[in-house]
């Protein structure tokens, strides 16, 4: 692993890649000379829109009895052992919900070269601050005690979540600035100002959300995050608060692109972030767009 700071690597152009076919998985592994974190083949819009990425994925359950600080969950991870370690993401469901409500995100993200833990919360009524602490506890478990810990680069971690889980991902990013990315989905939180946040954050909201209305949640959250943190806001046309609870391709495309860009420092994904997506399914997209 190189000692070059990961933040600096974000601004490096991708060098020529060496392509190797991984037998038995159908994965094309591209290792950029200047970026040791790059995983997987060069992306296209169609590859991001597909139901699965290039990596085969395995899954293992985590009992609540074997962990502290959160309620257990499910781990999804690439089966490949030839590409070194992967970045990792912890994801929280929303108020009154279980991981099963958004579980499609686990294999979808893992198949693009991440280890993902979808958590169960201690109680389904846990508030965002508690969910934020639980996300961090899940990352600590994942990197220190889990059966897949040797597959993870503990310096490249991210958080995400739906509703109060999305609000929790903001809480986690605020309290642990070493995180590489956050992806709140239809986030809900009574705290509207995140001026202290320094983690690259993609917020995805639903235009017709009546529970965490974008006008009082997602947009104020986005506006309060400093531009220096690197941020983007995607709004889904006519989407309700529950858009993450079924497979949502625009959400998947932008989430994967954001995580690959900032967890893997992979500049090949710049094209999907800046200037950003444009389609009838998207009512708004804005970004600090510092990429070049």
From TrEMBL:
Superkingdom field: Bacteria
InterPro entries cross-referenced by the UniProt entry: AB_hydrolase_fold (IPR029058), FrsA_esterase (IPR050261), PET_hydrolase/cutinase-like (IPR041127)
Signal peptide: 1-32
A GO MF label: carboxylic ester hydrolase activity
Presence of keyword Cytoplasm: no
Keyword Transferase: no
Start and end residues of each PET hydrolase/cutinase-like domain: 31-290
UniProt entry keywords in alphabetical sequence: Hydrolase, Signal
Family assignment from sequence similarity: Belongs to the AB hydrolase superfamily.
Family matches, as PANTHER family: DIENELACTONE HYDROLASE DOMAIN-CONTAINING PROTEIN-RELATED, POLYKETIDE TRANSFERASE AF380
Listed name of the protein: Alpha/beta hydrolase family protein
Record organism: Actinoplanes italicus
């Amino acid at each position: 692993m190189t000692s070059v700071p990961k933040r600096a690597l974000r601004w490096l152009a991708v060098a020529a890649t060496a392509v190797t076919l991984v037998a038995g998985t159908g994965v094309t592994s591209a290792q950029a000379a200047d970026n040791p974190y790059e995983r997987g083949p060069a992306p296209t819009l169609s590859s991001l829109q597909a139901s699965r990425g290039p990596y085969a994925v395995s899954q293992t359950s985590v009992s609540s009895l074997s962990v502290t600080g959160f309620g257990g969950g499910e781990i999804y991870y690439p089966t490949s052992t030839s590409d070194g370690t992967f970045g990792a993401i912890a994801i929280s469901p929303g108020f009154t919900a279980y991981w099963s409500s958004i579980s499609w995100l686990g294999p979808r993200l893992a198949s693009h070269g991440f280890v993902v833990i979808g958590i169960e919360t201690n109680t389904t009524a846990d508030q965002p601050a508690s969910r934020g602490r639980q996300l961090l506890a899940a990352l600590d478990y994942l990197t220190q005690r889990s059966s897949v810990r040797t597959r993870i680069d503990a310096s490249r971690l991210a958080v995400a979540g739906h509703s109060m889980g999305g609000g929790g991902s903001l809480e986690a990013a605020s309290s642990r600035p070493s995180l590489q990315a956050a992806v709140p989905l239809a986030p809900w939180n009574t705290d509207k100002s995140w001026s202290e946040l320094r983690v690259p954050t993609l917020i995805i909201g639903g235009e017709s959300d009546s529970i965490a209305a974008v006008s009082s949640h997602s947009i104020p959250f986005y506006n309060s995050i400093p531009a220096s943190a690197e941020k983007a806001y995607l709004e889904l046309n006519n989407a309700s608060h529950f858009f993450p609870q079924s497979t949502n391709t625009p959400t998947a495309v932008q989430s994967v692109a954001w995580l690959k860009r900032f967890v893997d420092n992979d500049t090949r994904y710049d094209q999907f972030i800046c200037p950003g997506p444009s389609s009838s399914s998207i009512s708004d997209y804005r970004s600090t767009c510092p990429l070049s």
